[in-house]
Fold this sequence. Notes:
By secondary structure, the protein is of the alpha+beta class. The chain has helices at 19-26, 57-66, 82-93; strands at 7-11, 32-39, 46-54, 71-72, 75-76, 78-81. The termini are far apart. GO terms for molecular function: RNA binding.
Amino acid sequence: MPSEEGKLLVGGLNFNTDEQTLEDQFSSFGPISEVFFVKGRETQQSRGFGYITFTNREHASDAMKAMKRESLDGRQIHEDHAGKLIFLKLKWRHF
């Protein structure tokens, strides 16, 4: 099972971007085990963010650094380690 550090949260996605496009954009940094988009329950349309899981956490870090301020399908995307963002959200809710 991949470490959470190998999982990136990618936000700011164009609603028309699909999983294959996202995988193609990031696959040059290393093997990817999963690409998952978050979709609305009723509409099943992308909510503009998703997750990419690399088989190696160093590849995820390399991708995050290289893709900083890059654009995909006409939108500037942003990415961070998924585990870190989840922790920050949980910590913020406790205040």
